[in-house]
Inverse folding.
């Protein structure tokens, strides 16, 4: 008789125990960054964060893992039994409850401590549930857009603002943003969705082809005003007052939900508008500038945080696993190749995290800046969107490989999900080439009045004079070649140099920001010893 030999003694228990008990706030490096950010309100903020990350790193993380399973992905029901078109978005009960709990935190409320909302959002990103973090970013943009014109918006919009920011009887309004159309998402000025004025509001007719968080209560929508060349920006309620209980949507249909590479928990729809009531925000001819300057800027900052939080989670869990798992004669981190890769992951997590908070602080304090400093900040936000989202994909791939085959198993680690979501972060809110081209145009225009050397010194104060000169000359040369006209051998090479040049500069910026915090570890040695 043949006896089957099976290693049934092998267990991952110790690794899981340590991983699942490790609080996201138990991170010396991060505590240092956050205390520097919050300054005098740090002690109070720390108290708030303790209970928040305790839930987030345990209960909520388990719930998120459940929501991420394919059988729980959102679905769309077009009709009820009585032939009424409802376009109901069906999300798992756990997802709806978690969403309500997270929004119930009132992240945007005036009662929150300085930076409390953004720090909590960073932690939420670490759980990798785009069905929650995407609508939070969109709600941020919705609130900021309304606040920019608060005195002049109609009463209905003021109500929307209160609902999203402070809540109504504990229920908080959720935002979305629909700008992309089928003929091009990057080119918002080419929008064809029509807005027809009707009294104090407008009505929308046409299609939006990428509509994430389609379950939201309100959306920020760009559309062309009938009979003009103007693309304006609007706030559109998903239901008009009294219609939500009957699921009668505000003059639009959701044609389908997209089947996506990543952010699978987030319902992304395609919408046909047929007379939706819309409230214009700001001047009719400034819609694109407002949508980009107010709404997309916030989403781009948010992508910096998402990328940093994904890599931080990956680096911490990879460190634990590499200390736990034996391969051949030692643990994974006992091999120089793996040890160097873990160092690289840790360094990336630190660079990206420190930079995301640094830029957010600059953004929050920009009222005190002059015009050139504001230009510098705008470009740095674009650079972070480009290079952090790109690096997150690379670092997640590395983290997966450190886990070997287990790295590819969806319920062994969250890395496959974070990897796919990182790919999406590269694409939405402006893909790489669009943003690199934007930077090119910005520099080509500004250099007519401000020397490039001065701009580079303002953006990268850590650089030596020699480096400033060297980079400024390279920028001048590329601008002289023109990478926007039709391709030829010279401008193709110049375009490649443009991308690598900014990559180098942004990396050096990250290292300079990191300098003050570098020494601190992301996992305490005592924790690693327990594994
Ligand atoms: C999962 C997911 C969810 C999304 N959700 C939303 C949403 O909720 N709301 C919303 O409005 N949009 C959403 N989008 C759309 C996203 O913002 C667009 O896909 C993106 O803006 C790019 O538009 P596009 O897909 O039409 O690509 P295109 O604009 O066709 O671009 C294609 C390629 O051309 C390049 N390119 C375009 N213009 C230029 C230029 N001037 N110079 C150089 N290169 C250029 C781009 O970099 C890209 O590589 C979502 C996308 C995804 C993947």
């Amino acid at each position: 008789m043949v006896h089957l030999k099976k290693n049934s003694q092998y267990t991952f228990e110790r690794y899981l125990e340590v991983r699942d008990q490790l609080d996201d706030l138990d991170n010396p490096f991060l505590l240092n960054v956050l205390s520097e950010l919050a300054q005098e309100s740090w002690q109070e903020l720390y108290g708030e964060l303790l209970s928040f990350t305790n839930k987030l790193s345990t209960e909520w993380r388990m719930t998120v893992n459940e929501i991420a399973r394919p059988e729980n992905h959102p679905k769309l029901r077009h009709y009820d039994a009585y032939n009424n078109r409802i376009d109901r978005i069906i999300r798992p009960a756990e997802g709806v409850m978690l969403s309500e709990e997270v929004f119930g935190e009132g992240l945007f409320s005036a009662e929150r401590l300085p930076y409390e909302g953004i720090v909590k959002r960073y932690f939420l990103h670490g759980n990798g549930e785009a069905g929650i973090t995407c609508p939070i970013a969109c709600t941020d943009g919705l609130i900021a857009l309304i606040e920019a014109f608060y005195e002049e918006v109609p009463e209905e919009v003021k109500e929307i603002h209160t609902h999203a920011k402070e809540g109504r009887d504990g229920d908080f309004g959720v935002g979305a943003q629909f700008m992309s159309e089928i003929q091009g998402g990057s080119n918002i000025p080419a929008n064809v969705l029509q807005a027809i004025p009707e009294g104090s509001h407008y009505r929308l007719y046409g299609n939006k082809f990428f509509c994430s968080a389609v379950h939201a209560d309100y959306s920020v929508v760009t559309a062309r005003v009938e009979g003009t060349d103007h693309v304006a920006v609007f706030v559109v309620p998903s239901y008009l007052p009294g219609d939500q209980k009957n699921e009668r949507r505000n003059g639009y249909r959701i044609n389908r939900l997209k089947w996506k590479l990543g952010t699978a928990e987030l319902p992304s729809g395609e919408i046909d508008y047929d007379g939706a009531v819309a409230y214009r925000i700001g001047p009719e001819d400034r819609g694109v500038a407002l949508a980009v300057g107010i709404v997309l800027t916030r989403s781009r900052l948010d992508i910096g945080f998402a990328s940093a939080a994904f890599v931080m989670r990956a680096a911490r869990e990879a460190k634990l696993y590499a200390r736990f798992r034996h391969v051949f004669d030692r643990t994974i981190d006992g091999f120089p190749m793996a040890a160097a890769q873990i160092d690289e992951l840790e360094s990336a997590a630190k660079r990206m995290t420190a930079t995301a908070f640094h830029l957010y602080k600059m953004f929050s304090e920009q009222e005190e800046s002059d015009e050139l400093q504001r230009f510098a900040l705008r470009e740095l936000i674009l650079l972070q969107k480009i290079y952090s989202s790109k690096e997150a994909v690379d670092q997640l791939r590395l983290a997966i490989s450190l886990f070997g085959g287990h790295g590819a198993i969806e319920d062994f680690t969250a890395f496959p999900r974070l990897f796919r979501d990182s790919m999406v972060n590269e694409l939405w809110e402006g893909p790489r080439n669009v943003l690199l081209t934007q930077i090119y145009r910005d520099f080509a225009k500004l250099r007519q009045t401000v020397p490039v050397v001065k701009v580079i010194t303002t953006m990268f104060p850590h650089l030596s004079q020699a480096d400033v000169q060297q980079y400024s000359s390279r920028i001048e040369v590329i601008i002289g070649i023109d990478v926007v006209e039709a391709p030829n051998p010279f401008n193709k090479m110049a375009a490649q140099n443009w991308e690598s040049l900014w990559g180098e500069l942004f990396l050096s910026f990250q290292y300079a920001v990191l300098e003050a915090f570098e020494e601190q570890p992301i996992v305490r040695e005592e924790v690693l010893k327990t594994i």
Remarks:
- The mean pLDDT is 97.
- The chain has three domains: 16-148, 174-285, 289-514.
- The longest strand covers residues 268-281.
